[in-house]
Specification:
Order of helices and strands: EEHHHHEEHHHHHHH
Distance between the termini: 49 Å
Radius of gyration: 19 Å
Structural class: mainly alpha
Number of domains: 1
CATH architecture: Orthogonal Bundle
Strand content: under 5%
Strand order of the largest sheet: 1-2
Low-confidence stretches: none
Largest sheet: 2 strands, antiparallel
Number of strands: 4
CATH topology: ABC transporter involved in vitamin B12 uptake, BtuC
Length: about 290
């Protein structure tokens, strides 16, 4: 068995795969946070709970309505995004003229309420969710076996992440969104309903969390605390990439997932803290993040 730095190559590539999968979820979740903060200046602490809601929506659709994974990929993000738009209209919209701290506290409180409701109803044990039959099995790449579903997660997250970046940075719709955050009065003068645009943007960012939750359900099981376990790492990813930077969220999410996976091979004791160590170093050298602006 060939080795690299004394580590069997199968073990190394296996951890790289795990790192890429974790990085895919970091990227999708941090992308939603970056969209919401970059365009609306809201620090959305409810994001982890909304990620969990996406996984539970997939579970309910399958077990209550008989709708499979592919239906869940469409319906769950829409449902979670719609719930986010209701919360934005009823609560967050009242705080836009106040300090950012109020929005942070409100979303943090909402996250605790949502997690508490699901935990009281379903407990802390994970609920199984079967992966689609079309993506079962694995492919032999020669140096390792790649589970089909894991490969799908990586490819789908890349398509979603870079598709979102293209829409926001390279299209007229994205230009309107960016303009509405900087000069809403001017955009309103062109006949564009800015409050509706803000609501839809928030719903889209929340829908990304719901989409990630559906993708995660067959891998991590459906758990009321699955968002709480992930969101702290995702916030670290957003800070390292640069608050509000779309490309920073994508590249940093995948990169840190790989670094975390490699750390588990070479220095397992540091695998749970390596991302936070990197965050501390980046903040000391470049406080605005790797891709952020001052």
């Amino acid at each position: 068995m060939s080795e690299i730095f004394g580590v069997p190559i199968q073990v190394l590539f296996g951890q790289l795969l795990i790192g890429l999968i974790n990085g895919a979820f970091y990227a999708m979740l941090s992308l939603g946070l970056a969209v919401i903060f970059g365009l609306l200046n809201i620090i959305n602490f409810t994001h982890g709970a909304q990620y969990m809601m996406g996984a539970f929506a997939a579970y309910f659709l399958l077990n209550k309505l008989g709708l499979n994974y592919w239906w869940a990929l469409v319906i769950a993000p829409l449902a979670v995004g719609a719930s986010g738009m209701v919360a934005e209209r009823l609560m967050l919209s009242r705080l836009y003229k106040l300090d950012h701290l109020y929005g942070l506290l409100l979303t943090f409180g909402l996250a605790l309420v949502i997690q508490g409701i699901f935990r009281n109803e379903f407990g802390s044990a994970g609920l199984p969710y079967a992966m689609p039959g079309q993506l079962s099995g694995a492919r032999n790449l020669g140096f390792m076996f790649l589970p089909n579903y894991r490969g799908w997660v990586i490819v789908a997250s890349l398509l979603v992440c870079f598709g979102t970046w293209f829409v926001i940075e390279r299209t007229k719709l994205g230009a309107y969104l960016r303009a509405a955050t900087e000069n809403p009065a001017m955009v309103q003068s062109f006949g564009i309903n800015v409050p509706r645009m803000v609501t839809l943007t928030y719903g889209f960012g929340v829908g990304l969390a719901g989409f990630a939750g559906v993708m995660a359900a067959p891998i991590y099981q459906v758990n009321p605390l699955m968002g709480a376990d992930t969101i702290i790492v995702v916030f670290a990813v957003v800070v390292i990439g640069g608050m509000g930077s779309i490309m920073g969220a994508i590249l940093t999410g995948f990169g840190l997932g790989v670094i975390e996976g490699l750390t588990k091979v070479f220095y397992p004791e540091a695998s749970n803290t390596v991302i936070f160590v990197i965050m501390a170093i980046v903040l000391m050298i470049r406080p605005q993040g790797l891709f952020g602006s001052r």
